[in-house]
Amino acid sequence: NPDSLALIKQSIKTIPDYPKAGILFRDVTSLLEDPIAYQTTIRAFLEHYQGLGFTKVVGTEARGFLFGAPLALELGVGFVPVRKPGKLPRETIAETYELEYGHDTLEMHVDAIVPGDKVLVVDDLLATGGTIEATVKLIRRLGGEVSHAAFVISLPDIGGEKRLQSQGLEVLKLCE
Ligand code: PRP
Ligand code: HPA
């Protein structure tokens, strides 16, 4: 409901000039520090996604874990972490994606998703969409079905939502 979404938005501080001059950084740590805002966020996702038949929640390191894991518990399904290279101990698959300057790689355990899994992807924030596009590729390579991605906040005007929609994803963001 609108009050919940306003509470969530208000709980996210905006930090000017971090990590560099001219950037307005949206800081979800202030949301996490407010138990009502944090609970309201997880409940908003739950209301949207419960009963849709998801079998796994995937969250991306690090801040995606903070929203994906509590949501997985509430949905009664497993949580799968997507991590930066070298952090996962079993056999992994990797996807490399472009950043503004350079590139980055994400990894997932090969046995974490099984063919036919219906996967919900969760992250704190949508910017360019590169992180979640790579995450979705990992899930699909393992035979998982993924058509929904959920974010607490989306940065407008930089094309992340369109990029994910072009990958066949329905995007939910609780605020901008
Ligand atoms: C941030 C954020 C998202 C991603 C969004 O994570 O938490 O995961 O960037 O950007 P994109 O849509 O342009 O891919 P970051 O890489 O800073 O990692 P962290 O959560 O470990 O701090
Ligand atoms: N906040 C948090 N993470 C981010 C941002 C931001 O404004 N931009 C890109 N990643």
Average pLDDT level: 98
Q: Strand-residue fraction?
A: 25-35%
Low-confidence stretches: none
> How many runs of DSSP E, i.e. beta strands?
9
The SSE order reads: HEEHHEHEEEEHEHE
Number of domains: 1
**C-alpha termini separation:** 15 Å
Strand order of the largest sheet: 4-3-7-8-9
List its salient traits.
single chain; 176 residues; alpha/beta; Rossmann fold; 5-stranded parallel sheet; two-stranded antiparallel sheet; globular; binds 1-O-pyrophosphono-5-O-phosphono-alpha-D-ribofuranose; binds hypoxanthine
What would a concise description of this structure say?
The protein has 176 residues and is α/β, with parallel strands linked by helices.
Break the fold down into its secondary structure elements and pairings.
Elements: H1 2-11, E1 13-16, E2 24-27, H2 29-32, H3 35-49, E3 56-60, H4 63-75, E4 78-82, E5 92-98, E6 103-109, E7 118-126, H5 130-141, E8 145-154, H6 160-165, E9 170-175
Parallel strand pairs: 3-4, 3-7, 7-8, 8-9
Antiparallel strand pairs: 1-2, 5-6
The protein binds 1-O-pyrophosphono-5-O-phosphono-alpha-D-ribofuranose (PRP) and hypoxanthine.
Residues 25-26, 125, 127 line the site of hypoxanthine (HPA).
Overall description:
- This protein has 176 residues and is α/β, with parallel strands linked by helices.
- It is 34% helix and 32% strand.
- It has six helices and nine strands.
- It has helices at 2-11, 29-32, 35-49, 63-75, 130-141, 160-165, and strands at 13-16, 24-27, 56-60, 78-82, 92-98, 103-109, 118-126, 145-154, 170-175.
- The strands form three sheets. The protein has a five-stranded parallel β-sheet with strand order 4-3-7-8-9, with helices on both faces. It has a two-stranded antiparallel sheet with strand order 1-2. Strands 5-6 form a two-stranded antiparallel sheet.
- Strand 1 (13-16) and strand 2 form a beta hairpin.
- Helix 3 (35-49) crosses helix 4.
- The longest helix has 15 residues, at 35-49.
- The chain starts with a helix and ends with a strand.
- Residues 25-26, 125, 127 line the site of hypoxanthine.
